[in-house]
Amino acid sequence: MSKRWPNWRRVKLHRSYTVAEVAELLGKHEHTVLNWIKNGLATAGDRRPYLILGRVLVEFLRTKRTEGRCKCGPGEFYCLKCRKPRIPAGNMADYIPLTQNSGNLRALCPECTTLMHRRIGRARLEEMKRILDISIPECARQLNDRTDPCGNCDSKGQEEP
What we know:
The chain is of the alpha+beta class. The chain contains 4 helices and 8 strands; from the N terminus they run βααβαβββββαβ.
């Protein structure tokens, strides 16, 4: 199965393509290319066989690929269920460190109460703290940091014979 939007870099700018050639080049069905023509892909003339200029095809694919994207503003998370950027419920988020320099912010969507995530670098965490109430959970203690024995071991008051 091919990607949703094909790689526009495969198209040669100074070449004309037929519908079948575009379909073969990009790994799509000919009907898909004809639908693109119906939805605004310009052809060289209005007669069949349609000829599509390479530079026009590249421009069409690049704009279609970025058309539905939206950037989240400061303090916004993208809710996958609502399909919109949202400010978290109560302006609260949790920071979960993943590496030494970055982590995830986790918050609830105010509309549908779905968990939303946003990747953030440690350097930008202070900037986000001015906008949101961010809690950083304490790390769980490691087993080798403990002075008392593990709860799963048999060493509670038993001595070896």
